[in-house]
Amino acid sequence: MIVEVLVALVLGVVVYALLPRTKKEVLQTEDGWWGAGDPPETAEDDAIRPFRVETSDEELEDLRRRIDQTRSFSSLEDSQFNYGFNSHCLQKVVSYWRNEFDWKKQVEKLNKYPHFKTKIEGIDVHFLHVRPRDLPEGTAVVPLLMVHGWPGSFYEFYGMLPLLTEPANPGDIVFEVVCPSLPGYGYSEAPHKKGFDSVCAARVFHKLMKRLGFSQFYAHGGDWGWLVTTNMAQLEPNTIKALHLNMAPPSKPNLPVVLSVMLGRWFPWLFGFTEHDVKRIFPYMKKVFGESLRESGYMHIQATKPDTAGRGLNDSPVGLAAYILEKFSTWTDPEFKNLEDGGLERKFSLEDLLTNVMIYWTTGSIISSMRFYKENLGNGLNKPHSKIPVCVPTALASFPNELLHTPKLWVKQKYHNLCSFTPMARGGHFAAMEEPEMMAADLRKFIMQLERGPK
Amino acid sequence: MQTLESFRQTLLSLDTPRLHLLAASGAVLAVGGLAACYRATQRKAKTVPMGDGWWGVGPKPVSEDKSIYPFLVKMSEGDIQDLHRRIDQTRFTEPLEDARFHYGFNTTYLKKVVSYWRNEFDWKKQVDILNKYPHFKTEIEGLDVHFIRVRSPSLPEGCRVRALMMVHGWPGSFFEFYKILPLLTEQEDGLAFEVICPSIPGYGFSEAPNRQGFNSLDAARIFLKLMERLGFTEFYLQGGDWGSLITSGMAQMKPECVRGLHLNFVTVRSKGLGMMLSLIIGPYLPFLVGLTQEDVKRLFPFMEKSVYESLKETGYLHIQATKPDTVGCGVNDSPVGLASYILEKFSTWTDRNNRDLEDGGLERQFTLDDLLTNVMIYWTTGTIVTSMRFYKENLKNNIENRLDYKIDVHVPTGIAAFPHELRHYPRAWARQRYRNIHSYTYMPRGGHFAAFEQPELLAGDIRMFVKKVEKL
Q: Are A194 and B98 an interchain contact pair (Cβ–Cβ within 8 Å)?
């Protein structure tokens, strides 16, 4: 009797092991319409129109007036950035903004790359399209889509663009870069209907790339950009040649992840954990759970009441700046919470930080940007895309101060074709803006390997 | 005697192993029972220590100024012009089609509210209404504490007058009690109340603390000192929202002063075998775990009504308990931002189904005048940020590990359970902390802002509770 049971067990295990457990599933999606009212009878106007960022004296006057009428308050004694954006630091930032920040000069900087708009699924999608110029003969040009997150924008990539589109050395790969704005962010029109989530954004960006004539391309993303490019790879794995990410949180805590959390502190080698992995993850309750709770208030309110959360911020430029820049402080290094000045200017210039804020301010897009949280998270984490693995070649640039630290083992649970995992020397969540050289170098190295094969 | 004899016979007829088992079970039960009794007596003995505090700027002076100053709410034309200018420059964002109140305060309805606020709301008239009751301020622990003190001038001889302190919560104020005050201060059945409504430090006309750490126990201690300064040695307490936690703390610090505690909002420890058993068995055999049919109707299905609903509605709590200065900054500058932030609660916390309505059902229970007066109290005093900090001070460490959650409340307690309150706590659960419940009433209608929305119902329940206590 026992022999029969044993044989059955062994056979069962063998069959189970041989069966392809993960079918190469492709994410399904349907078409959408996000314009106001009903879709028109006629076909969509798919022209690509050049666009220029503009400003006016009126806009600046209005901004100055609102800054001048700010009703400020004092932070509690000795609280630094622990209660949110510190009032002393905010006064300094605002004073610079009011008296020294030159928005017209920044607008010229924004316009140094060509901008365009095109209508997709009823909404105007804004994007940069940077074609490398004056290339020596025989230089390979490779198409690359870069997608931003919240509270960032296409502007986060401005430090990387010259490094990607202008070859430093002969024989370097050069990129033709497309940086769209997520619908509802900055110069992209906001959807008028409920339900526009990351999969819809992915589908819209696929249409954009097709409209621009790309049948295959590479994709890079962080924050929401991570999810949108991942969804793009799940929707059309043959179109996305490879994914380069600086964030890749696991979608489901499956057995290997759970085991690694339970045992990884004492047996790190069993799970491939490095010293840095152990330092970031354990003790789990304090470092992961506690930190997450402390830092996810914004996510909770934006995923439930975005229109309420964003209302005051669209009227108060100082309120908007505090809300956005708090993230550029805390998400760059969690230790910055204990600094009076939030360490803001250690990694970024006020000019760059405020340019990003101005993109949200001048377009009045803070509420629509927050709605993306509700569309993606408002009904829980059980979406179809969270169950489908990613099979295109993937690279993760793992920055030490990224919000949610994901060791290689966790990333592999979803990204089954993880070709490159680079622990970076320094940097946090806004890596593209903070460490453009490091990020560009990692991206270039990964794609060159794929294009030319391993040396 | 006969039963004893037959019992003895039964025992003797058992074989040894069974006898041993019986003895062991008996021993375990006895030990368990003793432990439970011991624990019960231990909990009975404890009060929350009062301690002391200093929240003013600079070091604590040798002696405190204990004078009580009359205070008048003032309005200025400059304030109104500033408000109108800010309203006029509001940058509205189009709502999503058919979003109603599911994404927060709906823009289309907000425009109507704002138009009323800009063109018809008369702040001068509302300030006169606010001043119809006498206001005062007094310095306690370095903070100017604001309160109103209301006693009817025309009470008949022989009428019993009891002191009652009523404490508000967030995003409310002392103004929430203006409709219930006439119902409590006038005599009915020979009973009337002298009512004191303070503002929590950091809210409205009460000064905000300058240092970190000011939580509900500090507010409780300050309010006890206030009652002492006003000459009351015995009084009743009433509270909802933060007011419930503060008044419970007062009852735990000085139970000898608190004749009775009436709550329309209950906070208890959420762990414990009892509660878990309730959740598992409750839907099927409610009586076995002390639940009534009404409890079952209000609690189950638990995941939907309690867990998911809590998740959907506690975003504000999460961000205020972690980054109050960030989230408050914008709403302190934008009156429309402030109004939508506060009034969204008056919509959803009155009835969750209001989220399905285009206008959030706001004007079904409240007038715009009343709602906006409450908003103006936050606006004119610029206290939205300091009011939000109270969440962080109370919740930054796990509040259920705090002393006042582990120690029970022994003063006579009355609970008014409103059907649309945020969370329903059956008597069986409330009893875990409130050990001396004299009355527990299932109210027929009403939500979180009970005093504001259903003043007659609440006043009726308070009176019924006090009469019960007084008969003792």
A: yes
